[in-house]
């Protein structure tokens, strides 16, 4: 009867629908400000940088996912694509910097590093590792840790950190967003 024909048609349409949805790609970004305390002329080893302003970055990512109709289970990958540090007059008080991301029960991942902070250069883009932080995002609580060597600046420095991530989600979420 006609029912059989309909079923057959629906089955042949399915692969097309999946192809039509594919992977959904979008990005999220955040900027955090902090003060690196000056040590005067005494000089002091710079042992840490304050990235606590990025601790609510998962909220930014979650908002972006909600806008796209994506649920945590749909996440394919989350990769930090850019971290840029800005400070006046420059970032030369830093010698080297490595930035790690982790989550509850999730091992740390090195996401970015830099070993060159020239005098007079107010903005430095870090070298990205390209390693995904998907597990930390799915775990729902991203922790940032900076491993830094250098000397504390003479005067207080206002440090701005810009972070951007690329998010890929599966067809399922993209299809739901398209269909709903």
Structure in words:
The structure is a single chain. By secondary structure, this protein is of the alpha+beta class. It is 26% helix and 39% strand. It contains four helices and eight strands. A four-stranded antiparallel beta sheet has the order 1-8-2-5. A four-stranded antiparallel beta sheet has the order 6-4-3-7. It is elongated.
The overall pLDDT, averaged over residues, is: 84
Helix content: 25-40%
Give the strand tally: 8
SSE pattern, N- to C-terminal: HEHEEEEEHEEH
Write the topology of this structure.
Blueprint: H1 2-21, E1 24-36, H2 57-67, E2 75-87, E3 94-103, E4 106-114, E5 123-125, E6 127-128, H3 134-139, E7 143-150, E8 157-169, H4 171-179
Antiparallel strand pairs: 1-8, 2-5, 2-8, 3-4, 3-7, 4-6
Descriptive terms for the model:
4-stranded antiparallel β-sheet, 8 strands, 180 residues, 4 helices
Please outline what is shown here.
26% of the residues lie in helices and 39% in strands. The chain is an alpha+beta fold and 180 residues long.
């Amino acid at each position: 009867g006609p029912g059989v024909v309909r079923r057959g048609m629906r089955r042949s349409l399915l692969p097309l629908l999946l192809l039509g949805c594919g992977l959904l790609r979008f990005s999220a970004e955040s900027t955090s400000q902090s003060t690196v305390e000056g040590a005067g002329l005494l000089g002091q080893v710079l042992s840490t940088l304050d990235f606590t302003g990025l601790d609510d970055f998962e909220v930014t990512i979650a908002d972006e996912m909600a806008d796209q109709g994506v649920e945590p289970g749909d996440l394919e990958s989350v990769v930090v694509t850019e971290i840029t540090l800005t400070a006046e007059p420059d970032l030369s008080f830093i010698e080297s910097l490595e930035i790690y991301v982790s989550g509850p029960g999730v091992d740390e991942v090195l996401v970015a590093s830099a070993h060159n902070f020239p005098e007079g250069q107010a903005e430095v883009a870090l070298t990205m590792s390209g390693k995904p932080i998907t597990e930390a995002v799915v775990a729902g609580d991203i922790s940032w840790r900076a491993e830094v060597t250098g000397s504390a600046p003479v005067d207080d420095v206002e440090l701005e950190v810009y972070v951007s991530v690329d998010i890929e989600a599966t067809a399922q979420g993209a299809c739901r967003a398209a269909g709903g």
